[in-house]
Write a structure and sequence with these properties.
Blueprint (H helix, E strand, L loop, with lengths): L2 E7 L7 H8 L4 E6 L8 H9 L5 E4 L9 H13 L3 E4 L11 H39 L15 H11 L4 H8 L3 H10 L5 H5 L1
Parallel strand pairs: 1-2, 1-3, 3-4
């Protein structure tokens, strides 16, 4: 049995130190991503899911480090459980004093389900407040819209374009670069990126 840590922040300029410090106290191996939790196609997360074995414990500091909505969290928890591993969230009540493994897992799952509901409800409230704020800003002529994810083609986007030109599908490009396929499709259309076979047609 091993304790495997997973840490995540949403962008490259955010700091993982707090999470890593908490995980190092009890984990023998730690995986970390600096990517949004909007989807589960994160390199270190996928490596962690492939790495864990029966009896292992996946440890995160907060549940939202795994994902941002109930569906994704449920899917990830299922993948962890299908490997016969368990999940431990450091900021939730512990069940370490309960010796019966089945009862411990049941209580742990109930706690996680409650937390997922609270996190999803809070996320929906935040989105609603954002919509209201945007509506007000638009009425007052102050709304400037979202900043583009890639203001100009950067190295990762250029690499994605190269993979596409070499014949990879949008799905394969997503797997290799971590750029969501819908986002990538928008950017390749925006910059007119085509394969030579596309031009011939």
């Amino acid at each position: 049995m091993a304790r495997i840590g997973y840490a995540r922040v949403s962008s490259g300029d955010q700091n993982l130190d707090r999470q890593l410090e908490a995980l190092k106290k009890s984990c023998s191996k730690i995986f970390s991503d600096k990517l949004s939790g909007k989807n589960t196609n994160r390199p270190a997360l996928l490596q962690m899911l492939d790495y864990i074995r029966e009896g292992d414990i996946v440890v995160v500091t907060e549940l939202e480090r795994l994902g941002r909505n109930s569906k994704e969290l449920t899917d990830l928890m299922y993948q962890i459980q299908s490997k016969k591993a368990t999940l431990e969230i450091l900021n939730l009540p512990t069940t370490q004093g309960i010796e019966d493994e089945n009862l411990r897992n049941l209580i742990n799952n109930l706690i996680i389900e409650i937390y997922k509901y609270q996190a999803e409800s809070e996320r929906m409230r935040i989105l609603e407040r954002q919509k209201q704020g945007i509506a007000i800003a638009k009425r007052e002529g102050k709304y400037k819209g979202r900043k583009p994810l890639f203001p100009t083609p950067d190295e990762r986007l250029e690499l994605a374009f190269k993979f596409y030109k070499d014949g990879l599908s949008d799905k394969d490009v997503e797997r290799k670069t971590g750029i969501n396929r819908e986002t990538f499709r928008r950017y390749r259309l925006k910059y007119g990126v085509e394969r030579s076979s596309d031009k011939a047609n």
